[in-house]
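The data are quoted verbatim here:
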Amino acid sequence: QVQLVESGGGLVQAGGSLRLSCAASRSIFSINVMGWYRQAPGKQREVVAGITSGGSTSYAEPVKGRFTISRDNAKNRVYLQMNSLKPEDTAVYYCNARPAIDYAWGQGTHVTVSS
């Protein structure tokens, strides 16, 4: 069973950047699509970005052009580079497979963007 641990969140001013990291306890090589999700207070969890084993990426419309997802299968890690952050990006960010049906959610990492 893959355990997922997110890190890298914090408090940042609008326009700033953060790089989130997702560490998996074991190989993610066989997981075709890994993704980042986020959940803001009072809202349902939404997908932010996805990346296939081959490196193909997809992004939710609100983050296109600002966020970049990447993965390092050898290190069992998935990253989310977030640039030009906006207050509406404030949320708890999680990583998981897409779809997120086979693995438990981690604790997530909090991202707060101040105006």
The mean pLDDT is 96.
